[in-house]
Amino acid sequence: MHLQGTFYILKKRCKVTLTVDGISWVPEASPECYHHIRVAEVLGCWLCPRCSHSCCHYAHPTAPDTTTSPTPLTVAHCKHSLRGTSGAGLTLEYCERGRKLEWRPRAVALVHAAGDVVVAWYQAIWALLHGLPQRPKRVLVIINPEGGKRCAHNVYAKKVAPLFRRAALHATVVQTQYRGHGRELVENGTGMDLVDGVVAVGGDGLVNELVMGLLMVSIRRAGVDPHDPQVTLPTTHLRLGIIPGGSTDAMCHGTHGTSDVITAALHIIMGDSRCVDVAAIYRNGQFQNVATTMVSYGYFGDLLKTSEQWRKLGPTRYLVSGFLQFMRNRSYEGQLKVLTPANPLAQPYDMNGCCHECSVCDKAAMAAPAAGQWLKFTGRWSVVTSAVMSCACRLSPYGVSPSAHLGDGCTDLILVSGGSRCRILSYLFRTAYTGNAVSLDHVNIHRVQEVHFTPKPTGAKSQWNCDGEQLTEPALKLK
């Protein structure tokens, strides 16, 4: 495809070119001011009846009708036309990459004197967008109205839904009604083969439910036994998009680098995807759950248990519960058996963390790290954390394990020895503010592929915090 034409952009006469690579324009009076937008970064376009840059951004477009084609009659004249001449407008909306990894939609108006020319460009642009294989066309949106500050539905309705409509992304919206409902909708829902992906609007707990549901569907299709720890579980058959609407949103922050709602929505519209690790959790020889961010025993497990009593406080409940656990200063005895990779692609002490087009994750995707040797640890710890990813969020910008990778086939096991309150305080402070907690003498970290934890038969026991959900059984296996 190759179209060329002359349009007015911001009252400047510009030469515009449309190809399969994107759309570009250059003012005739200023050839050095060249602009280019890749096709993948175009959100959509619509016919603007007023054809003015000052009003195009506030237009209310509808998704293009696939049954009928627009005609020049649908493009009206505008009182803002250039010096009284008749004209027709085409508004192009695209993604602009900003600073701090946050993206924003931007709109530009292309004005032409002939309505049929504008319609031809309109149809050509949508033809290119519909031909992008990675771009979703239909999604199932699942909202958790009780997560975080209980504003997930408003966030989606005000910020995400308008973007989806302008990008001609058809969304079927469902709200969860109870814990575990998200998994049921995905695992047992009809019509899942008709969508290109699932979008979670909520926190890490909802993401965990949907991943579990998608994984169970893939397990049934593959015909494997999920309770056999030697079986490699299949990948999910659908992509999962994440719109942050919880208390911490570590999964969204870890994959996008930010918890910004607009940025997350633009990633989904453009069809960006990335393979991430999921940890399978076995208890009593049975496959019970998955972990997408981290599983933690001790301090964070007790924190989650106490915070459930303060849900009315919203995200503030974690601060209240955290202070109570600090004052209690509890630690727990147990035994750990871990499997280390034979040739790890990276070390947990590396300064370079996971990033876009990560070489470590790319190598692991081509060939998973081979299993190495088993190690055993016995001790008393105040924190035992298996971090599948960095777990960075608004409250902890560096994360629990800053050097963890999204898709390297490993998890970072962090052990914080029990003792005085100064130990746990120094660990929490560095985790939240400096990101170098692993340099403390009482903190050990290991990059492993499997974790087997057995608590001491006698004595106090904690519980596990799995993606913000409670696992009451202290003994577990993670792979």
Account of the 3D structure:
With 479 residues, this protein is of the alpha+beta class. Helix content is 26%, strand content 31%. Strands 12, 13, 14, 15, 16, 17, 18, 19, 20, 21 and 22 form an 11-stranded antiparallel beta sheet that branches. The protein has a 4-stranded antiparallel beta sheet with strand order 1-2-3-4, with no helix packed on it. It has a 4-stranded parallel beta sheet with strand order 9-8-10-11, with helices on both faces. Helix 4 runs parallel beside helix 5 and helix 8 packs across helix 9. It starts with a strand and ends with a strand.
How far the N terminus sits from the C terminus, by CA atoms, comes to 49 Å
Largest sheet: 11 strands, antiparallel
Helical residues, percent: 25-40%
> Strand share of the residues?
25-35%
CATH class placement of the largest domain: Mainly Beta
| 3D shape | elongated
CATH fold group of the largest domain: Tumour Suppressor Smad4
User: What structural category arises from helix and sheet content?
Assistant: alpha+beta
Total strands: the figure is 22
- CATH architectural type of the largest domain: Sandwich
What integer is the average pLDDT?
87
Helical run tally = 11
Number of domains: 3
What's the gyration radius in Å?
26 Å
Runs with pLDDT <50, length 5+? Answer: 55-64, 66-86
Please provide a brief summary of the model.
With 479 residues, the protein is α+β, with helices and mostly antiparallel strands.
Task: Describe the secondary-structure layout.
Elements: E1 2-9, E2 12-19, E3 22-27, E4 35-38, E5 42-48, H1 53-56, E6 88-97, E7 103-112, H2 115-130, E8 138-143, H3 152-166, E9 170-175, H4 181-188, E10 197-202, H5 204-222, E11 239-244, H6 250-256, H7 261-270, E12 279-283, E13 286-291, E14 294-298, H8 299-307, H9 316-328, E15 332-341, H10 359-366, E16 371-387, E17 411-417, H11 421-434, E18 443-448, E19 450-455, E20 464-466, E21 469-471, E22 476-478
Parallel strand pairs: 8-9, 8-10, 10-11
Antiparallel strand pairs: 1-2, 2-3, 3-4, 5-6, 6-7, 12-13, 12-22, 14-16, 14-20, 15-16, 15-19, 16-17, 17-18, 19-22, 20-21
